């Protein structure tokens, strides 16, 4: 299995670590959109605030008496003595229908029970025996009146309930005491008539003691009921509201602006990820999981007069850039059994044909015997550049034509350059599956025997299926990445090539924009979106 150990020392980020987008540059990039969304959100919040009716909110508080300290509730199994649950229950009771009926009466009937259900809430404290009553109304005085009325109505209900419990208990005790008094009278009569009265006297004394105890319990219940009363230890009336609780345009405007800013920022981040481009030479490495082979400048920006500077201007800056790419691949050619290198790109116009041509020349100038193959049968850029449109080529070789009839030396190459070209050959039906049949495999085997390095110009990977089929016959892939290519496009390329298994030897960062001198080169690195590729003599 091919290993990327050959690329040791090749210019690339450590372990292809993906660098996350920096948030401030992304936000600055979309600053206009963020400002507009923030202003619109704040304006919408302000407008909606002004559409709200005016409401005032008042709060009253009640500190309740702990029912465990009230004797009136002792032996009353219907009462839950858990203080937390007790306070929560009382908060519900304060806003119950009976309580709101009483509230409506106390405020003179200006709000119905249905209205009060929307205007009144009561919440229980988790740590204190405290119930907070909140009431809203169109006027500050009305809100205060309702909150206070809820507290009064609650106290009346509790007082009535406590008194009812006390009266029922006292009535029961009085009935028992009456029965004991009757029995005591009967025992007194029996004692007077019977000479032996010891047992009768004992029974009478027990009845008298029980009667006294019942009387004491009845009095204690009456006292406890009076002390417990409403069950409210302290009632704090609601202060008069000084300002409305709604609308609050300033607060709502600020909140709307903040939410708009957060939403616009999140959307900008999402857009930044989707629109992220390979703007600098290392951006593609973590996506492709492959090293940078070299940086090729925009040919026009460095004064190149042709698309083959390695032939026409071998000492130029542009030619030197392609020689760097060739040098980066030397180790793979020598030690990793890489012979057939497929030069591909994501989409048409990325410069793969120009790269394949110049890479083949650069490798040949290094003394290797190179065969350059036009595998882009649909576009035929190399075939047109070499003026071999009518010559036999790859498709004819797959049909049994002799290799000598399908391979030509470039007319523009010097005589000592050991490089031959296999043109596209006779046109085939695009839907014939030519690159998947046995004839193509035989043709590639025959071509591989004619040189030390085979450079194949492939169709664009994302444009047609031919490139994936051809990749299966190559030892490695050289991917051409134009500066400004979207990262998502590179992810699609990686996913498609993962299904083939042919390794990406590395990528060429193409059409880098000039930013002055760097390492002796008259070009640097910047942003460029050169999708519309310039053509000369049919190259693409």
What share of residues are in beta strands?
A: 5-15%
Q: Cα distance, first to last residue?
A: 32 Å
Q: Give helix % range.
A: 40-55%
CATH class of the largest domain: Alpha Beta
Strand pairing plus helix content: what structural class? alpha/beta
CATH topology of the largest domain: Rossmann fold
Key terms for this structure?
Rossmann fold, disordered C terminus, disordered N terminus, Bacterial polysaccharide co-polymerase-like, single chain, alpha/beta, 12 strands, elongated, 47% helix
Please characterize this protein's 3D structure.
- By secondary structure, this protein is α/β, with parallel strands linked by helices.
- It has three domains: 40 residues; 184 residues, 2-Layer Sandwich (Bacterial polysaccharide co-polymerase-like), CATH 3.30.1890; 214 residues, P-loop containing nucleotide triphosphate hydrolases (Rossmann fold).
- It contains 18 helices and twelve strands.
- The strands form two sheets. An eight-stranded mixed β-sheet has the order 5-12-11-6-10-7-9-8, with helices on both faces. It has a four-stranded antiparallel β-sheet with strand order 2-3-1-4.
- Helix 1 packs across helix 8, helix 4 crosses helix 6 and helix 11 crosses helix 12.
- The longest helix has 54 residues.
- The two termini are 32 Å apart.
- The N terminus and C terminus are likely disordered.
